[in-house]
């Protein structure tokens, strides 16, 4: 009898696991499955879970403990779980109630495909029943009847194809737009100023009231016809009135002339397109960023260190090589016809943005040399939320930096004159869920007019999997139906490229870096990333580096580089005899605080001027007096009074501190948006926040940690907002000097498991509740939606209440079964960290 009971328990658990996996599969492939299929899985999942809970309540021990006892018996282990307590039984009932409620809510707001049967029920306003739908689907599957057809407009089409906007304006409409951009003083008082008999628009000069005619023709070579239009304009102007004529021809056009004292200016469409935008300031800016702006903490420019990367079809070394030179490959693509778009993918530090700037600079050189090539428009997506913008608004963010009319840019884009470089899609704002990310890309694809060219750059891990990459970036094979996108990956540097990039460093530094790379595979992984290689060259001769070659990793190198930058800035201020000179520890405190503020508010390496002033003010207000003696002070700092004591008699103390942080830290103006600042590289932001996470884990009661948390509200759980930050925290832990991986694990996870688990849990809860809220808002009747919209406060209360219930249950599980939970999450996190080749700690 006992054996039969054990077998029944195992079968019950197996059924629960299978049904749970099936429900997860339905959610992942929800565009393929209807609510009826989900009801089938949910009904039997709930029924099986009910039986499991009933067994747990009635039996001497919960079902999970029974399973552990069976496993121990089969494995010949001497383990026997203690008898079930009342709290165990209550926990089982609570978990079932939560599970039951969640499955019902998901059924009620099913986000997947809709069947015609469901639409008919909705039209009849029938209340949805999970039990009825589950039984119906079970009967259908048993009888092998065909499933209900999908509702019209909800049929699954696989990976979404790019749907570029179409341009259907007649020539006369395009001519009107061109005329308005050529003549800023031209205005139309009425909506209809088209004089069809003469194929001419008639407007007025803004200041003089003089009539301006815009004659739209395919070709112009007949002065007699022009004379007819001049006479018509004179008649409209009346005696004493003045007028002028502009001729816009699609193709051929003779030169300007004067007819009966009236100026007649002639333009072909191509000539007009050449004149509507002055790119002089933009061209100068792009050239300056590559040729004149110095890299952080250096006199070198991008031109001095840049080496083109190799291009592959995938991220692996086994993937086919597409080209040996990325910039040359982009130039060939730039000049070709067709609707092939590009996505340049690479992990952090591989030089994606730098390569795009060099490509844009080279294209500008060709344009200045008289070549007829597309104009590269370098648009940084950092901190932007494209999902809420139209194509004109997307361009307006860029044109505002150079005083250009966004309407003119849109016309040039439609005419095939531009190549749009959308740099850093992984730094877009409000991109925490798959739906939000795809919505951003859907908006960005508005720029893909039939004659446009677009290149995206970003980290591929920003997108969840291959399916999301294909859906968001439109990656696919050409099928003759329109635009498509090809994904290419930047390969790490080989030895020759590393040597070329080191052409402007001393021979001793070059030989030392190459020698260490030859004998250390981990260090080789670091220097094959262009941005990290540059950081290595700047800190190579520091004692900290020379004495710890074997412990170097990417986060450690970036951390040392940032500290080196702090020291250089402090030395400069000391040389200038500035009484406002900050110590390295004080500068590090403010930079950590700014990074923590960005992470807490979901920003992606961007902060506005007002936000910077606010957070620096709070950090100054809460700065500990003992800060110089804490862990971030570097060797060489001389003891001195605290910052508050040094500034106590200065009435402008806060303003001077803000200026100092903005000027002498590692922040810089963000060229993608006026009035904002960023760290020089996104990796700086990530490693700074990781330093703060490390302090939260290992020194939560330290004065500096408390001051930053009080000033910014940042907590350890905010690591879910910053990709790779947990891995970088692990690397910073590994760089302390442990001997084995087990020692690192013990130090990293000991006492911190609950924080890590709960933070990951709240991340999932946030995404789930936000998705449910959006689904609920979408499915509500339109009238109700407008009369009672969801507010941020409502959503926050919903997330807080649901998250509070789940968090209490999760906390109870962790408390009751710490060893089991630790084993699960410990190994799961280790697998994630070890999946990144640059995050390998010291080998045993």
Question: Briefly, what is this?
Answer:
With 844 residues, the chain is α/β, with parallel strands linked by helices. It contains 35 helices and 17 strands.
Indicate the topology.
Elements lengths: L1 H27 L6 H24 L4 H12 L11 H23 L7 H8 L6 H14 L27 H12 L3 E2 L6 E2 L4 E6 L5 E7 L5 H15 L5 E7 L7 E3 L2 E7 H7 L4 H12 L10 H4 L5 E2 L8 E3 L2 H10 L4 E6 L6 H17 L6 E6 L10 H9 L6 H9 L3 E6 L10 H11 L8 E6 L7 H8 L10 E7 L4 H7 L5 H13 L1 H7 L2 H10 L3 H4 L7 H22 L8 H17 L6 E2 H14 L20 H4 L6 H12 L2 E3 L6 E4 L2 H17 L4 H10 L12 H10 L6 H9 L3 H27 L2 H6 L4 H25 L1 H17 L10
Parallel strand pairs: 4-5, 5-7, 10-13, 10-14, 11-12, 12-13
Antiparallel strand pairs: 1-3, 2-3, 3-4, 6-7, 8-9, 8-14, 15-17, 16-17
Helix pairs in contact: 1-2, 1-3, 2-4, 2-6, 4-34, 7-9, 10-13, 12-13, 14-15, 16-17, 19-20, 21-23, 23-28, 23-30, 24-25, 24-28, 24-29, 25-27, 25-29, 28-30, 32-34, 34-35
Beta-strand content? 5-15%
Low-confidence stretches: 153-160, 575-580, 628-637, 771-808, 820-844
CATH superfamily of the largest domain, by name, is P-loop containing nucleotide triphosphate hydrolases
The chain-level mean pLDDT equals 78
């Amino acid at each position: 009898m006992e054996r039969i009971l054990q077998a029944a328990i195992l079968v019950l658990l197996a059924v629960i696991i299978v049904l749970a996996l099936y429900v997860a599969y339905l959610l992942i492939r929800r565009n393929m499955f209807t609510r009826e299929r989900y009801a089938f899985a949910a009904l039997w999942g709930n029924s099986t879970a009910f039986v499991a809970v009933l067994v747990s309540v009635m039996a001497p021990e919960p079902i999970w403990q029974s399973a552990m006892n069976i496993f121990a018996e089969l494995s010949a282990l001497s383990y026997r779980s203690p008898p079930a307590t009342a709290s165990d039984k209550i926990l089982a009932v609570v978990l079932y109630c939560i599970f039951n409620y969640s499955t019902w809510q998901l059924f009620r707001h099913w986000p997947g495909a809709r069947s015609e049967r469901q639409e008919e029920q909705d039209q009849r306003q029938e209340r949805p029943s999970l039990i009825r739908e589950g039984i119906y689907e079970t009967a259908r599957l048993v009888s092998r009847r065909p499933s209900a057809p999908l509702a019209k407009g909800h049929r699954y089409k696989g990976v979404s194809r790019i749907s570029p906007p179409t341009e259907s304006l007649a020539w006369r409409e395009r001519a009107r737009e061109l005329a308005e951009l050529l003549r800023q003083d031209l205005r139309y008082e009425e909506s209809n100023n088209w004089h069809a008999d003469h194929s001419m628009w008639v407007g007025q000069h803004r200041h003089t009231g003089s009539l301006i005619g815009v004659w739209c023709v395919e070709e112009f070579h007949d002065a007699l016809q022009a004379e007819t239009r001049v006479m018509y304009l004179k008649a409209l102007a009346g005696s004493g009135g003045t007028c002028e004529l502009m001729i816009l021809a699609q193709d051929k056009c003779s030169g300007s002339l004067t007819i009966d004292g009236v100026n007649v200016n002639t333009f072909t469409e191509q000539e007009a397109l050449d004149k509507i935008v002055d790119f002089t300031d933009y061209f100068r800016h792009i050239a300056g960023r590559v040729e004149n702006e110095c890299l952080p903490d250096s006199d070198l420019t991008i031109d001095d260190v840049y080496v083109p990367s190799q291009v592959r079809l995938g991220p692996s070394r086994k993937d086919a090589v597409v080209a040996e030179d990325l910039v040359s490959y982009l130039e060939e693509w730039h000049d070709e016809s067709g609707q092939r778009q590009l996505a340049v993918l690479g992990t952090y530090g591989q030089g994606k943005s730098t390569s795009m700037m060099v490509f844009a600079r080279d294209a500008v050189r060709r344009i200045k040399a008289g070549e007829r090539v597309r104009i590269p428009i370098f648009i940084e997506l950092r901190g932007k939320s494209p999902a809420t913008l139209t194509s004109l608004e997307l361009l307006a963010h860029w044109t505002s930096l150079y005083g250009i009319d966004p309407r003119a840019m849109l016309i040039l884009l439609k005419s095939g004159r531009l190549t749009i470089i959308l740099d850093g899609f992984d730094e877009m704002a409000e991109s925490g869920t798959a739906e939000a990310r795809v919505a951003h890309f859907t908006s960005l694809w508005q720029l893909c007019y039939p004659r446009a060219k677009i290149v995206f750059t970003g980290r591929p891990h920003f997108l969840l999997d291959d399916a999301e990459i294909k859906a968001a970036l439109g990656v696919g094979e050409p099928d003759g139906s329109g635009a498509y996108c090809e994904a290419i990956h930047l390969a790490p540097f080989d030895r020759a490229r590393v040597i070329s990039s080191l052409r402007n460093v001393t021979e001793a530094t070059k030989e030392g870096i190459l020698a260490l790379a030859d004998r250390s595979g981990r260090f080789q992984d670091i220097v094959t990333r262009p941005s990290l290689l540059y950081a290595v060259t700047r800190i190579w001769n520091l004692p900290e580096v020379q004495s710890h070659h074997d412990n170097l990793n990417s986060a450690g190198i970036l951390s040392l580089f940032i500290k080196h930058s702090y020291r250089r800035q402090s030395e400069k201020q000391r040389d200038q005899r500035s009484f406002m000179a900050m110590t390295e520890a004080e500068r590090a405190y403010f930079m950590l605080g700014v990074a923590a503020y960005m992470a807490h508010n979901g920003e992606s390496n961007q902060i506005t001027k007002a936000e910077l002033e606010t957070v620096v003010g709070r950090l100054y207000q809460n700065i500990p007096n003992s800060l110089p003696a804490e862990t971030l002070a570097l060797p060489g700092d001389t003891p001195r009074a605290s910052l508050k004591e040094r500034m106590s008699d200065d009435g402008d103390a806060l303003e001077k501190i803000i200026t100092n942080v903005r000027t002498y830290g590692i922040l810089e103006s963000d060229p993608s948006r006026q009035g904002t600042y960023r760290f020089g590289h996104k990796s700086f932001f990530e490693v700074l926040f990781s330093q703060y996470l490390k302090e939260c884990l290992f020194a939560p009661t330290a004065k500096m940690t408390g001051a930053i948390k009080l000033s910014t509200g940042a907590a350890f759980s905010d690591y879910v907002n910053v990709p790779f930050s947990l891995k970088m925290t692990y690397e910073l832990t590994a760089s302390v000097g442990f001997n084995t991986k087990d020692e690192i694990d013990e130090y990293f996870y000991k006492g911190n498991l609950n924080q890590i688990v709960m933070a990951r849990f709240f991340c999932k809860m946030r995404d789930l509740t936000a998705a449910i809220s959006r689904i609920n808002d979408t499915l509500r009747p339109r009238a109700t939606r407008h009369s009672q919209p969801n507010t941020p406060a409502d959503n926050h209360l919903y997330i807080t209440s649901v998250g509070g219930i789940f968090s209490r249950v999760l906390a109870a599980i962790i408390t009751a079964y710490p060893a089991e939970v630790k084993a699960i999450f410990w190994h799961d996190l280790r697998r994630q960290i070890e999946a990144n080749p640059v995050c390998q700690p010291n080998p045993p």
